[in-house]
Amino acid sequence: MNSYTDTIARRYDGLSSQDCCLSCGGALSFAKVGKGDTAIDLGCGKGRDVIRMALLAGDKGYAYGVDISEGMMAEARKQAGVLGVENIAFVKSPLENIKIDHGSADVIISNCTINHSLDQAAVWREIARLLKTGGHFVVSDIYAVEKVPEQFRNNPEMVAECWAGALTREEYLNNISNAGLSDVEIMEESRSYEKGKVKVASFTVKGYKR
Ligand SMILES: C[S@@+](CC[C@H](N)C(=O)[O-])C[C@H]1O[C@@H](n2cnc3c(N)ncnc32)[C@H](O)[C@@H]1O
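Above: inputs. Below: predicted complex with S-adenosylmethionine.
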């Protein structure tokens, strides 16, 4: 990790004991996790979605939660233990370089996380690397209605607040197609709203590795 990701991890360590909603859409509800699937949640936070995916995947399937915040992953592990979910692992890893083998996943989800990355193109290349051929992703995230000024984009505190790292809608979708992912569909999309010092909107995007 570097000082940028440290700042983000620290913020989420602090939020891990609070009961707040950190999602920007309904990625999981569009993910269609099947029995026996291997599923990955990028930025799993306290584990709500990844635990649900482990339960949907059943005994013959597996789910990985990836996050950089120890605090968040500790909460997620605790919750998985309480529910007796064993087909699950939590991987501490930055999204740009994920410590999971290539071609592992039938389905990858992410909710309100990729906007935190300084190199979102690299995150999308990782998604393409991790998916099996025929696998799919469903990602809920925010995008900026107009380009976020550099002085905000380079401020990790502001990025950690889920707005300053946002790319424009066009940049976001370009990263997906440049990673070689296809059949992209917008499953839901909000109106624009003020967040931090900019206007953003959120959407849920689905697509495939063919
Ligand atoms: C807004 S929260 C969303 C958590 C969860 N997906 C949910 O919907 O409740 C963002 C999560 O992404 C994690 N995160 C942020 N940047 C990350 C990065 N570069 N690599 C891995 N995890 C990251 C944070 O630690 C945090 O748990």
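The chain has one domain: 3-208.
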